[in-house]
Write a structure and sequence with these properties.
By secondary structure, the protein is α/β, with parallel strands linked by helices. The chain contains 13 helices and 9 strands.
Length: about 350
C-alpha cells in the first residue's frame, strides 16, 4: 500500500468512523476500481456519479442526499471526495448540508483538485449556467495527495490544473512562474511534486489569513471573474472549455485590465499573454458573444451595485485584492485585446 492510502487508513482507524462514504465519478472508478480495497466492504459505500462542470446542479445533490438517507448515513460517517474539482465542489456542498455537516476529507485525483479545488473550503453548484452561484464554506478535515494519480490524467485535464499553477506564480511566486514558463511541453511527468506542494502551501497560507474571502484571499481570484463568465457562456455550446482553460484566458484579460489601470508594466503584460497563449487557444468571440460574457460577469458573487471587485496583478509575483470593474470596462477589454494582443 502506498504512503497516501496508508495515511488515510490510519486516519480512519484513529477516528473510528462507522462508515466510509466515497464519492467518485465513472472515469476514476474505472481507472482505480481497487483503490480502496484495503477498506472492508461492510464499512464502505462507494457512490459513483457522472460528475462534470455541467452536472454541478441541485438535482445531482438531491440524488446524493437521498442515497445517504437510504443507507442510513449518520454523523459517525466519513465522507471522502475522490475525484477532480467538480467532485470536490459538489461533494463538499452535499457533505456540508447533510445533517448540517458530516466529517469530510478531500482526496483529489487531478492537478486542479490537488492545488485548488480540494484546498480552501469553497464548495458550490451552478444554477442557470451561472458558475458556483450557490455554495458554502466547508473546510475538509484533511487532504490526501497522491501525485501518482496524475499519470492517467488526460492532456486537457493537465491544462485545466496548469492554469492554476500559472496563477500561483503570477500572484505570489515569481520563481514558480519562471519555472513553469520554461517547460517545452506539458506532460504528467513534467509536473513537479514540488510545484504541487508549493501551490498548496501558498493557498493554505492565504486562506488561513482570510478564510472567508474578506480581503487578502481575493488575490486567488485572479483570472476567475472573466474566466468564470467565459466558462459559463461556453458551458452548453458546441465547444465548451474547462475551468482552467477559461481561467487562463481570464488571466490575460484581467492582466490587460491591470495594465489599463496603471498597475502592471506593458512588458510584463506582454510576457503573460505570450506564455499563456503558448499553451491555451483563445476563442474568437463576436460582439454579441462579448456582450453575453459581460452579462455573465454581472452575475459574479463579488458584484455590488453593478460594480465588480476584482484583484489585479501589479507585477509578476505580486497582486492586490481589489479594484473596481464595470460592464463597460469588460466590453472595452475585449475590444482592446482583439486589436492589440491576439497576434503576440
Amino acid at each position: 500500500m502506498d504512503d497516501t492510502r496508508l495515511q488515510l487508513k490510519r486516519y480512519i482507524v484513529n477516528h473510528n468512523f462507522r462508515k466510509i462514504v466515497i464519492l467518485t465519478d465513472d472515469t476514476i472508478l474505472h481507472l482505480y476500481s481497487d483503490y480502496f480495497d484495503f477498506l472492508p466492504d461492510a464499512k464502505k459505500l462507494i457512490i459513483k456519479v457522472s460528475i462534470s462542470e455541467s452536472a454541478k446542479k441541485l438535482s445531482v445533490c438531491s440524488q446524493l442526499w437521498e442515497t445517504l438517507i437510504a443507507h442510513e448515513i449518520d454523523k459517525e460517517a466519513l465522507w471522502v471526495n475522490f475525484g477532480g474539482g467538480s467532485v470536490s465542489d459538489v461533494g463538499g456542498f452535499v457533505a456540508a448540508t447533510f445533517k448540517r455537516g458530516i466529517h469530510m476529507v478531500n482526496y483529489p485525483t487531478t492537478l486542479l483538485g490537488m492545488i485548488d479545488a480540494a484546498v480552501g473550503g469553497k464548495n458550490g453548484i451552478n444554477i442557470e449556467n451561472v458558475k458556483n452561484v450557490v455554495g458554502c464554506y466547508y473546510f475538509p478535515k484533511s487532504i490526501f495527495i497522491d501525485s501518482s494519480l496524475l499519470k492517467t490524467l488526460p492532456y486537457t485535464e493537465l491544462l485545466n490544473g496548469f492554469a492554476e499553477l500559472l496563477k500561483y506564480g503570477l500572484i505570489c511566486d515569481k520563481q514558480l512562474w519562471m519555472e513553469l514558463k520554461s517547460i517545452s511541453s506539458l506532460k504528467p511527468q513534467s509536473i513537479s511534486k514540488d510545484w504541487i506542494q508549493r501551490a498548496i502551501a501558498m493557498k493554505t497560507e492565504i486562506v488561513e489569513k482570510d478564510p472567508y474571502d474578506a480581503h487578502e484571499r481575493r488575490i486567488l481570484n485572479v483570472g476567475h471573474t472573466i474566466g468564470h463568465a467565459i466558462e459559463s457562456f461556453l458551458m452548453h455550446s458546441s465547444l465548451p472549455i474547462t475551468h482552467g482553460h477559461a481561467v487562463a484566458i481570464g488571466i490575460c484579460y484581467e492582466a490587460l485590465f491591470s495594465f489599463i489601470k496603471g498597475k502592471l508594466a506593458k512588458d510584463k503584460l506582454e510576457e503573460i499573454w505570450r506564455v499563456i497563449r503558448k499553451f491555451y487557444e483563445f476563442p474568437d468571440f463576436s460582439s454579441s458573444d462579448v456582450m453575453k460574457i459581460a452579462e455573465f460577469c454581472m452575475q459574479d458573487k463579488k458584484i455590488t451595485q453593478g460594480v465588480i471587485s476584482i484583484p489585479l496583478l501589479t507585477d509578476i509575483g505580486t497582486a492586490i485584492p481589489s479594484e473596481k470593474m464595470t460592464k463597460q470596462d469588460i466590453l472595452y477589454l475585449f475590444d482592446q485585446a482583439k486589436m492589440n494582443f491576439f497576434n503576440l
